[in-house]
Design a protein that fits this description.
With 682 residues, the protein is α/β, with parallel strands linked by helices. It has three domains: 33-321, Aldolase class I (TIM Barrel, Alpha-Beta Barrel); 342-439, no CATH class; 453-463 and 491-664, 2-Layer Sandwich (Double Stranded RNA Binding Domain), CATH 3.30.160. It has 20 helices and 14 strands. It has an eight-stranded parallel β-barrel with strand order 1-2-3-4-5-6-7-8, surrounded by eight helices. Helix 9 links the parallel strand 7 and strand 8 (272-275). Its main location: mitochondrion. Homodimer. It is an enzyme of class 2 (transferase). Its cofactor is a divalent metal cation.
């Protein structure tokens, strides 16, 4: 049957109260209520497989650890299991703290009330909870009772309960409290609810020191939370002797508004809230005590309940009820402190960066986009705050890299890498885990191994243009006997080194304004034309373990193609050289016919000065009998030498040859063969 186009023919709109002078809208909740946890009674009775005694005991102990002082533990007259569990709590020393009340529930039947009271015999603090439906719907359909018959039964059962509890000398060792619930209060005439509770109050005889509890349940949520608040305020203002009773509420979640109903009810005068952890209960469940408590907490109010280890609470609840906590459940869900959206991730990342910059600690005022609660306050970690899928942007990706590798990526690199991540997430069709994103970054920017470039050895020296001869005196002698002071700050830098490209070693020399430009010019001599467009660096770690992280953005000469390189090393110069070679490797690999075998455009002819610079890389000197510049090196010798890396090597692997074994004749011969397309590795 489809939904009705004229639903008013079937369903009646709930009639609100006429309460023109309502006061609750102008009030605020500034303190926590008394809490009653009914997981072991209301929550348990709604389970497909109710908890056994051992599970209930574990749950009870957790509630005590959290700080609950009033716990509804059972419906003793409903089952032997509940009765036995209640007795075990009372009879086992040390299980129930002296300041914790055990609450038990019974319907308004004398035999049930008697058995319920017996289950608590010997308890230090006890709450006897009786309920009786008062709405016209339940009285007419379920019980066939008039208002007067209902009122009389409520009074009779209260008097009987009093006679076998606080008036019974055999129970003198127990501090008895009495709770009465006009069941279906939310659908009961407010005038009749007041009339019944006035009669019950008189029958019990409360005092200011021992108040009666009137529990006003939204047994079925009938209307909007503001209407429930009106009902609670009406009750509070029309009952007499307000100082002698506590108003409790028990909202159910049929319309999805139980939390709001409980909070507005407190504004309307309620002193106490009954509910369960994560809202377990009949149909759509009870009000969630976790949400209520942490709502107060995020308003700067200590709720008297400690959820510092919310993951443990979730684990116990799920194992006991066999109902998983929804991933989107307020505060407790696994995804509530996670952001997948790119704009959300960027805002969160900036918020954390600002807190770090301002030096804010765990107790300093919390203000962070999208996160009303510091995840660490409830035992969550920041690592789970940002998660990445195909919808995520650069901010989330950068956050994960910053947390895992301590790298503060420049914005341009964030954009470039986020595209790589999005492509990977699309290909996998799922969220990427942080470890997968870290591995993808290390692979994309060659942090563990550069697959195409290896810097075998290098040297950077200051060079300057030849200066004109100083003028002679009239007698042909220099005007001064000492050499003029050298200003090396204006000198160029010359890079001389050995670079292995795709396993083939090439001697290169380049001159520039600094280390990066001189290496870039050296690569230019091999036909790799890259211009440095952006450069950023920062330190990683502190003290002696500090490293330099360098980021270089390069553009291919004559095109708009951009590539990024990343370098990490103890020496900032070497880090920058690694970053440039990382970019060069990405440049070669990004060509259309990837991977492209490297072919230098021409053979480099070195000048005498450049050869001398290359010779200086040899630790034994060019005149040594074993100098590779003066003698040939066999493949076997080169292979053997590869096991002893040069002390200047930065990124070596099994094919690297240390500087003292380099044979430039062999290298140049191989380079020539590369041009002809049939080179072998030296």
């Amino acid at each position: 049957m489809p939904m009705l186009r004229e639903p008013w023919k079937k369903y009646r709109k709930f009639k609100p109260l006429d309460l023109p002078n309502r006061q609750w809208p102008s009030r605020t909740n500034d303190k926590p209520p008394r809490w009653l946890a009914t997981d072991l009674r209301d929550g348990n009775q709604s389970l497909v497989d109710p908890m056994d005694g051992e599970q209930k005991l574990r749950f009870f102990k957790m509630l005590v650890e959290l700080g609950y002082k009033e716990i509804e533990v059972s419906f003793p007259s409903a089952s032997q299991t509940d009765y036995d569990f209640t007795r075990s709590l009372v009879d086992t020393p040390g299980v129930v703290p002296d300041d914790v009340y055990l609450q038990v529930l019974s319907p308004c039947r004398e035999d049930f009330i008697r058995r319920t009271v017996e289950s608590l015999r010997g308890a230090k603090k006890a709450i006897l909870h009786l309920y009786l439906a008062t709405s016209e719907c339940f009285r007419r359909i379920v019980f066939g009772m008039t208002e007067e018959e209902t009122l009389a039964l409520a009074v009779k059962c209260t008097q009987f309960a009093r006679s076998i509890t606080k008036d019974d000398p055999s129970h003198a060792g127990t501090e008895w409290l009495y709770e009465f619930s006009p069941e279906t209060f939310s659908d009961t005439s407010p005038e009749f609810a007041v009339r019944v509770c006035e009669a019950v109050k008189e029958a019990w005889g409360p005092t200011e020191d021992s108040k009666i509890i009137f529990n006003l349940p939204a047994t079925v949520e009938m209307a909007t939370p503001n209407i429930f608040a009106d009902q609670v305020e009406y009750f509070c203002t029309h009952m007499t002797e307000r100082e002698k009773f506590c108003v409790s509420v028990h909202p159910h979640n049929d319309r999805g508004c139980a939390v709001a109903a409980a909070e507005l009810a407190q504004m309307a005068g309620a002193d106490r809230v009954e509910g369960t952890l994560f809202g377990n209960g009949e149909r759509t469940g009870n009000v969630d005590l976790v949400t209520l408590a942490l709502n107060l907490y995020t308003q700067g109010i200590w709720p008297n309940i400690d959820f510092s280890d919310i993951n443990k609470v979730i684990r116990v609840c799920e194992e006991s009820t066999k109902i998983p906590v929804n991933e989107r459940w307020p505060y407790g869900g696994q995804l509530v402190v996670c952001a997948f959206s790119g704009s959300h991730q960027d805002a969160i990342k900036k918020g954390f960066q600002l807190r770090k910059k301002e030096g804010r600690g765990p107790e300093d005022p919390w203000e962070l986009p999208y996160l009303p609660l510091d995840p660490q306050d409830i035992g969550r970690t920041y690592e789970a705050v940002i998660r990445v899928n195909s919808q995520s942007g650069k901010g989330g990706v950068a956050w994960i890299i910053q947390r895992s590798l301590e790298l503060d990526l420049p914005r341009g690199l964030q954009v470039a890498f986020s595209k790589i991540v999005q492509k990977e997430a699309d290909a996998k069709g799922r969220e990427l885990l942080p470890r997968e994103i870290q591995a993808l970054f290390e692979q994309s920017y060659h942090l563990k191994e550069n697959p195409r470039f290896t810097l075998i050895d290098y040297n950077i020296t200051a060079v300057r243009s030849p200066s004109p001869a100083p003028p002679k005196s009239s007698r042909g002698q220099p005007p001064q006997t000492q050499a003029p002071a050298q200003n090396t700050s204006a000198a160029k830098r010359q890079f001389a080194g050995i670079i292995a490209i795709d396993g083939v070693q090439h001697p290169v020399v380049g001159v520039g304004n600094g280390a990066i430009s001189s290496l870039a010019n050296a690569l230019h001599s091999l036909g790799i034309d890259l211009d440095v467009a952006d450069y950023k660096e920062h330190a990683i770690g502190e003290g002696r373990e500090v490293k330099a992280a360098t980021y270089i953005e390069c553009t291919a000469s004559g095109s708009n193609e951009k590539v990024w390189g990343v370098g990490i090393h103890e020496d900032v110069v070497q880090a920058s050289l690694i970053a440039l070679l990382s970019a060069a490797s990405s440049f070669l690999s990004s060509r259309v016919s990837t991977p492209v075998p490297f072919r230098p455009k021409h053979l480099r002819q070195f000048s005498e000065a450049e050869l001398e610079a290359l010779e200086r890389l040899n630790l034994n000197g060019p005149d040594s009998p074993n100098s590779p510049l003066r003698t040939s090196t066999t493949a076997a010798e080169a292979s053997e030498a590869a096991t002893t890396p040069s002390k200047l090597n930065m990124e070596t692997h099994a094919d690297s040859v240390p500087a003292r074994k380099i044979n430039f004749d062999l290298l140049e011969k191989n380079a020539e063969q590369v041009v002809n397309g049939h080179a072998e590795k030296p």
